[in-house]
What we know:
This protein has 252 residues and is mostly helical. It has ten helices and no strands. Helix 1 runs parallel beside helix 8 (180-203) and helix 4 crosses helix 7.
Amino acid sequence: xxxxxxxxxxxxxxxxxxxxxxxxxxxxxxxxxxxxxxxxxxxxxxxxxxxxxxxxxxxxxxxxxxxxxxxxxxxxxxxxxxxxxxxxxxxxxxxxxxxxxxxxxxxxxxxxxxxxxxxxxxxxxxxxxxxxxxxxxxxxxxxxxxxxxxxxxxxxxxxxxxxxxxxxxxxxxxxxxxxxxxxxxxxxxxxxxxxxxxxxxxxxxxxxxxxxxxxxxxxxxxxxxxxxxxxxxxxxxxxxxxxxxxxxxxxx
Length: 252
């Protein structure tokens, strides 16, 4: 017969193990959730700033002005779907593709940060030039029957700048395997949300033109460009820090 103190001790140990397992599970779930939210909050402003759905909608309304209203809405949805595909592919395989060609993560972060910062700098100090370039791309094929992918998706909506930002974000992925799923879930959700914003803004382009106008749209572009510049500098700094840490580790 087991004594009462002994049984109480066993019950206490069992309860402690159960509590410890529950605490670890909760901590693991919180880490996953925090990883998703953190990745989402970094990727969303970066992608939204470089895609700039509001500014793009003003040009979209001019390029598609001769088409029926229903066709313009359908075209907006197709551009949004194509844009989501471009961003997701760049996010999911961009950094891995660069690594396949022997480009280190640190080098990719430095180069990606420079490209993002340079794009943001141009948007910040000369937004009209960026708008004119986009309008030239879109207007070059305005008379063609199917312009959803080229030029409205590439290079008008998700051009080289967007792809560079997505690859730079992909380069900041965590090194641990268990943290990869939250990272890619958060960044992919941000890309899908930006594509949804493209669909809404392009489909409502006429209303946005009446509401904002070019001047107010440029103010929003400058604000988003400054945020994008900060993100580019942050990516650049993480690449430089990683390169220095790797060099010091090899030196020792």
